What does this fold into?
Amino acid sequence: DAKTTQPNSMESNEEEPVHLPCNHSTISGTDYIHWYRQLPSQGPEYVIHGLTSNVNNRMASLAIAEDRKSSTLILHRATLRDAAVYYCIKSDSNYQLIWGAGTKLIIKP
Amino acid sequence: DSGVTQTPKHLITATGQRVTLRCSPRSGDLSVYWYQQSLDQGLQFLIQYYNGEERAKGNILERFSAQQFPDLHSELNLSSLELGDSALYFCASSVEGTRPSTDTQYFGPGTRLTVL
It folds into this structure.
């Protein structure tokens, strides 16, 4: 089960939108895409998940490509507290989450 | 605060020793997951328990074992420790767990294990 592909790091300015990309070309038709984030010295925290259509919650939006081979996590207005490692995760054949190395998001004031 | 607690927060021990990590899930959650995170790496799934029974196994070494008790807390036992076992160990819980890929997992703060 292949992991997803994400950039190692990204920078963004405070109070601007952030688009975090993820490629998951081997995803199966029934696998969800999950996003978690890990703030420094903390355990991971759920952000959002989706299957086919775009999803919104109070933290972020998730845009899933029509062919489901990629997705983008959108933080609408990044703050310094959003600086974290963001993980785009798919599941394996046992429905367990497969974690890659994630994208380290750096927010510049 | 996710509602998941882990003890101890830090653990320093020597090679060859055995340690036990403890996790209490959120109230009402039936599934517990154990993960290992080595320095600057993503999380590696070790094992899942659902309502007291082992549900799925990942890359868990034979020197490692886990169990979930009737009150749903879980323990991860690591034995014959090696230097390479030094890592952060996270516990997570979810309400269900019959199909983890659709469940939201709530993570504890982790236990940092250092093997000298």
About this structure: Chain A touches chain B through 23 residues (CB under 8 Å).
